Amino acid sequence: MAIEISAVHRKPFDSKNSNTAWRKPFLKIGHGGASGHAPANSLASLRTALDMGVDMVEFDVRPCRDALVLVHDERLNIPNAPERLVSQCSLAELRALALNPEFRIATLPEALDLLMGRALINIDLKAAGYEIEVHELVHARGLAAEVLYSSVIPSSLLRIAQAAPEVKIGLSYPEDRSGASSKPYLKPVVNTFLAAMRLTLPYRILSMMAKAQASAVMLYHKIVSPRVVQVVQRAEGRVFTWTVDDPRAMSKLRAMGVNGITTNYPDLFDTSPGL
After folding, report:
1. Where are the domains of the chain?
2. Cis-peptide into 174, omega within 30 deg
3. Fewer beta carbons below 10 Å: N end or C end of the chain?
4. Per residue in 98-140, pLDDT tens?
């Protein structure tokens, strides 16, 4: 079966209005800031990533009752705090639950103001329906050229792409809603599934990106192959991978030619040979 190579129809990375940092062949990306060194998505974590010299900072955004906040999960998961649905809490309530100052919930405006002019920004949209509000905050700060929006939800990406055709869109894949990948007893099943996915992905990736109007794909590192990198890049797209904390895996991905690696430990880029 031949793989059809057709250029992705959105090429904002090459736009004359794009930040020149996007022209780098490889981007060092901090996951949730520097989540291996500070609480993920906290301002402390974002600052640590900047101090470690990342090219781009990734963080998660979802709505609470009265703000857009940097929180990964649908339910608030803070040590020694009761579990609450983020969407049902006010910002004040969320912050009151985080008794440790290190876990203070950050808002999207705070994160944008911190990162402005210091790094590229990857905003991972964690729920549908608030995409335009996110982009309005980005646009108001003149940051549209520095931001890459990503999500596992194609409808979210379509909504923001249609409202702002100049923005950069990255489709995240796959989604693990069940949490199967984190359960040791399911590892053989998960590995078999990932191996099959890695083989078939080159035949599907461009149509998946087109449905989301994406010019980049954010792939779980265990399903990346040299062939899928080749297919996407020949179509003038970008391949970024998440979340990689093993220097050997990072070196292998770098050799495949990926456009960027997301890690919880950005200091690995400076301490590991070949990165």
Report:
1. 26-265
2. yes
3. N
4. 767 777 899 999 999 999 999 999 999 999 999 999 999 999 9
